[in-house]
Amino acid sequence: MTQPVRVGIVGLGTVGSGVVRLLMESADHITRHAGRPIVVERAVCRDPARDRGLRLPADRVSTDIRDVSRDPSITVAALLVGGLEPARSMMIDLLEHGKDVVTANKALLAEHGPELFELARKKGRSIAFEAAVAGGIPIVAAIAECLAANRIESIRGILNGTSNFILSTMEEEGADYADVLKLAQAKGFAEADPAMDVDGTDATQKLAILAHLAFGVWVPWGDIPRTGIEGVDSDLMAYAGELGYRIRLVAVASRSGGKLAMRLAPALVKVGTPLAETRGAYNAVSLVGDAVGRMFFHGLGAGQMPTASAVVADIIDTVVGRAAITFRTTGVLDTDGPAARMGGMDTLEKHFLRVCVNDLPGVLSRITGILGEHGISIASVIQHDPSGASGAAVPLVIMTHACSTAAVERAVAHIDASDVVSGKTVCLSVLDE
Amino acid sequence: MTQPVRVGIVGLGTVGSGVVRLLMESADHITRHAGRPIVVERAVCRDPARDRGLRLPADRVSTDIRDVSRDPSITVAALLVGGLEPARSMMIDLLEHGKDVVTANKALLAEHGPELFELARKKGRSIAFEAAVAGGIPIVAAIAECLAANRIESIRGILNGTSNFILSTMEEEGADYADVLKLAQAKGFAEADPAMDVDGTDATQKLAILAHLAFGVWVPWGDIPRTGIEGVDSDLMAYAGELGYRIRLVAVASRSGGKLAMRLAPALVKVGTPLAETRGAYNAVSLVGDAVGRMFFHGLGAGQMPTASAVVADIIDTVVGRAAITFRTTGVLDTDGPAARMGGMDTLEKHFLRVCVNDLPGVLSRITGILGEHGISIASVIQHDPSGASGAAVPLVIMTHACSTAAVERAVAHIDASDVVSGKTVCLSVLDE
C-alpha cells in the first residue's frame, strides 16, 4: 500500500466534523479514489474537549493552528473556520508553511482572495474551494474545468439556502416573512443572526467568487448591487403567482455591452423554469456558455454532509494532483478583456412594478403616462377592486415588456416623486428562462 | 510562449467539425486554460475535399488514421468516429502508438470499454470520454471527480435527446408518435434511421458507462433490461397527465439489496420534478450520493457545439495532465463489492398500468382481484365512460401504491392471460421525486 497522506483539519464546527466523519467512515472508498489512504493526522479547534461524536483519538485534537502548520508530515490542510479573522491569518500561516489548503470559507475568499491566491502561487501551493460556493454542487469544477472550452456568457444562481427556504416556504404556505424566518431558525435552516443570509451578503460573496472563475476578474463583493429578501412580502408573492411567476433571490453576472454586469436581488422567475422549481434549502446555478448553451445544476447548497462532500472531493483532488493543475489556470481568463470592467446593470429585461397608488380617478393614466415618457411599454396591469374608501392607498401591479433597467429606475424615481403614490415602488427583474 | 500541443482529429462529421471550429475560434481562451496553445496538426476523414466551412489548411486533412497515429509530434487524438468499426481499430492504433485519446463514441466504450481501458492502462495512456454521455453536461467529471467522496446510491437520467424531444413534443402538442418522429427528423433532432435512439440502445449504452463510473463495474449494455418509446401513445400521455405525471424515457441504476439494479424504460415522472421539466433535446441526470444527497444536472445532451464543448474540455484536461490522473482512478470502485453483481430490478415502486379490458360487468372486480392476489394495493383507478358498445375494448388505468416490481410483473402476466382483456397491458414505473 502506498504511503498515506496526512491531512490537518482546522475547525471542528459543523462542516469540520462532517469532513472528519466522511474521511473516517468512507475511508476505503476514498482511498480507492485518491490512490492512497487519507488520514486525519491532526484537528485543531477552540474546544477539543467537546464531544462531537467523532472517532478521533483525543491526542490528535488540539487548539493551536501551529500543530498543523508546523507538522512536516501534514501536506494538506482543510481550513473550515468561518469569518475573516483568525481565518485569514490561519490561511497565511498554512500557506507560508507549505501546506496545500482546502477551504469552504466564501467570505474569506471574497474579501482576501487576490492576496491569498497570490501568496499560494508564490509558495507553489494550491487553494481549492469547491465547498465555498453552492455546497455540494460542483459548480467551481464545472466552470474552471468542465466548461473550460466555453466563454461564459452569463451566470444566474440561487446561492443561499436560508433565503431560498424562506421565500419558497412563504410562497407554499402563504405565510409572512417574519413567521417563516422563525420556522427556519427552529428547523436549523437559519442562524440565530440571519443577517448575512437574508440581506444577501452571503450570496453576493459567492457570486464574486463565481465571477472570478468565469470571467477572470476579482470584483470587490461590496461593489456588487445587492438587495436582500427583507422587503419581499406575501402580497408581492401573490401578484407574482397571478402572473405565472415565483420570487427567488437571484445572483446574476453577465457580459453586457463589453462589460460585466452583476447584481444580487429578488427577481421574478417563471413557473416551470429550473430556478422557479428550486425549493427549500436547495441551491441552483444556471449558466450559458458560448459552445455548451444553457446548463443547469441543482443540489443541496449547505448542510454538514453536502458541504463535507465538496471539501473531501477537494482534498482528494489535492492529493492526486488535480487541484494544483486547476489552481494554476483558475481565474486567468480575460483579465485584460472587457469583462474585467464592471458596468452598470443596464440590460434589457422585463420588469415587475408594484406601485402603491392613491385610489383616485386618473391615477392609472398618470403612472402609465410616466412609464411611456421613459419609453417603457406595458405588458400587463393588475389592479384589484379596492375594498377601502376612495383615496386610500392600493397596490397597482405592472409588468413591462423588455426595457432598459436604467430607464425603469428613472421612471420609478419619477413615479415615487409624484403626488399620486403613497409609499415606495417595488421594482423587480423578470427572468423568463 | 510554451510549446504548443499538437492534436489529431479523427473524423470530421458534425462533432469533429465542431471541435476543430472551437479549437480554432476560441484559441486564445483555450490557450489560457491549457497553459499552452492547442493546435490541430492533422484531421483525418473519409472525404477531405468536402467543404465543412473550416479554416483548416487542405494539407492538414487526409484520409489515413496513420497520419495521426504515426506522427510523433501529435500527443493527443480526438476519436470522433461513430459505431464500432473502424472506430475500435482506430482507438487501438492510436493507443498502441502512444496517443492519449479523447472520444465521444458511447457505443464503442459500452461494447469494448474493458478491452480499450486495459490497453490504455498498459500503454500508460488515458482515455477521456466526457462527451460520450449527456453531451455538454459534465456528468462524467461529476461522478469520477467532484462526487468522489460519495458512494453513489442511484442514478436516473434522460440520456437521449431525440427520444426526449419526441416524448415532450407529443405531450405538448397532443400529437402522435409517428407525426412527431417525422417532425424531429425534419428539424434534425432525429436521424433518418432513428432506431438506436427510439429503441433505447443509445441511452442504455450511456447508462452502462455511467454505471462503470459510479459503481466500478462493466455491465454489458445488452444485459440491461431495455424498453424504447415506440409503445408510448398520446392516450398513455393523457392518462399520465390526468394523474399529475409526464412520461420520460428514464435510465435507472441503483444499489438495491446489495445488488446493482438497472433498466431503461419509459416511466411516469411527477410534474414539477426536474426530470418532468426536462423538455425537447435536453438531457438530465439526477443522482443521489450518500454525503451530498440528491443532485441534478440539466443541459444539451447532443448537438455539434455542446458535444464539442465536452470534447475540447477533455483535450484541455489531457494536455494539462488532469485526464491522466482521473483515468487512473476511473471505475476502480467496489469491483469486489456487492454492486458488481447485477440483480433484477425488484425495487419497491409505484406502478402505472393500462389494461385494455372488455367493457363487461364484473371486469373491474376481476382485475383488481388479481392485483390483490399478488399483494398489490391500488392508489387510484381511471375508467372513462366508454363511447362504444357494451363488450368493446376500453382502457382501464390503475395507479398502484409502492409494491414489488416482480409482483407487478407476475400480476400483469396473470391479467393478460385472463379472458377479460383484449390486448397487452402497459406497465410503467412511477417516479415521485
Summarize the structure.
The structure is a homodimer of 433-residue chains. Chain A folds into three domains: 121 residues, 3-Layer(aba) Sandwich (Rossmann fold), CATH 3.40.50; 157 residues, Dihydrodipicolinate Reductase, domain 2 (2-Layer Sandwich); 84 residues, ACT domain (Alpha-Beta Plaits, 2-Layer Sandwich), CATH 3.30.70.260.
Please describe what this structure looks like.
With 433 residues, the first copy, chain A, is α/β, with parallel strands linked by helices. Chain A has three domains: 5-125, NAD(P)-binding Rossmann-like Domain (Rossmann fold); 150-300 and 335-340, Dihydrodipicolinate Reductase, domain 2; 348-431, Alpha-Beta Plaits. Chain A contains 15 helices and 16 strands. Chain A has helices spanning 14-25, 27-34, 66-69, 87-96, 106-122, 139-146, 161-173, 177-187, 195-198, 201-215, 234-242, 304-320, 322-329, 363-373, 405-416, and strands at residues 5-10, 38-44, 61-62, 74-79, 100-103, 127-128, 152-158, 245-256, 259-270, 282-289, 293-300, 348-358, 378-382, 393-400, 403-404, 426-431. In chain A, strands 7, 8, 9, 10, 11, 12, 13, 14, 15 and 16 form a ten-stranded mixed beta sheet that branches. Chain A has a six-stranded parallel beta sheet with strand order 3-2-1-4-5-6, sandwiched between helices. In chain A, β5, α5 (106-122) and β6 form a beta-alpha-beta unit. The relative contact order of chain A is 0.12. Chains A and B meet through α2, α6, β11, α12 and α13 of A and α2, α6, β11, α12 and α13 of B. β11 of chain A pairs antiparallel with β11 (293-300) of chain B, so a sheet runs across the interface.
